[in-house]
Amino acid sequence: MIKATSDKQSALAEVIKRSAPKEGICETSIPSLFFIQHSTAYGPVHSVYKPSVCIIVQGEKELLLGGERLLYGPNHYLVASVDLPVSGQILKASDSAPYLAMKMEFTPAEILEVMEEGALQFSTAEDPKRGMYVSEVERPILDVAVRLTSLLVSPKDIPVLAPLIKKEILYRVLQGKHGSALGQMAIQGSNTQRIRDVIDHIRREFNQSFRIEDLADIAGMSVSSLHRHFREVTAMSPIQFQKQIRLQEARQLLLYEDADIIEAALHVGYESASQFSREYARLFGYPPRKDINRLKKNGAG
């Protein structure tokens, strides 16, 4: 079994090396499927993970979600069930053994469809679980991943077969040890789904101030329940979540659109440029201008 799993990982590694012509994240011709390749340790990089399944076939990566550390490598896969701001860095990578991974994004509707077709049921009364987790990878998931990536050599089959194989991957993940954490996200009326509604609202209105009572109304919860459940899913409070979204958006404006510091601060909802600069430095380790100059010097721009 161990050798069979290793063979599947080797097959995936060959597809990724062949299909990812450059360093970083590469789109594929299969919708919502991405390959990642890095030949050196890399990061930390701040980003917002969309709902997705990520399988590493070579190398090792660390993610920080709030104050929680998630470490995973070729024996694991990672699932993000909701949008989550994280900091990540690749710990193991080299020219001879580059970091190689595949990421498949999905939507709540796709999860719900698989649950209905597979007659998978999860209790709506269950308390929310963390919206990101690492689980041991098993051969059935690798089998399906190999079949999905193999479609890249047969483009005419992608429109018909890719959606079916994607469903099978989601079905396997839902049946895994932590599958209920993913299933709860899609069930209408579950506590996790209601927290997801709050997350979606903050994502859309990240540059607007909010009252915690208004977020509680969106979730249909008391303020205390909202705080407790939101922290359980995201490992942070609603205000901390919004702050990370705001600062990541501001960083993109400074880096790629040459916005000045005051302009970026105002755009993402800060009234004080000095407060913006303090919180920016706290998250990214450098004040805005120094951080952007450093990133551009290192080729990020």
From TrEMBL:
Does the keyword section mention Oxidoreductase?
no
InterPro entries, alphabetically?
A: Homeodomain-like_sf, HTH_AraC, HTH_AraC-typ_CS, Tscrpt_reg_HTH_AraC_N
Q: Does the keyword Flavoprotein apply?
A: no
The record's SMART domains line, in alphabetical order, gives: HTH_ARAC
Name any one GO molecular function: DNA-binding transcription factor activity
* Keyword terms, alphabetized: DNA-binding, Transcription, Transcription regulation
Specify the HTH araC/xylS-type domain's residue ranges: 196-294
Report any Pfam family annotated for this entry: AraC_N
Taxonomically, which superkingdom? Bacteria
* PANTHER family the UniProt entry points to: ARAC-FAMILY TRANSCRIPTIONAL REGULATOR, TRANSCRIPTIONAL REGULATORY PROTEIN
Q: Can you name this protein?
A: AraC-type DNA-binding protein
**Organism classification, top ranks?**
Bacteria, Bacillati, Bacillota, Bacilli, Bacillales
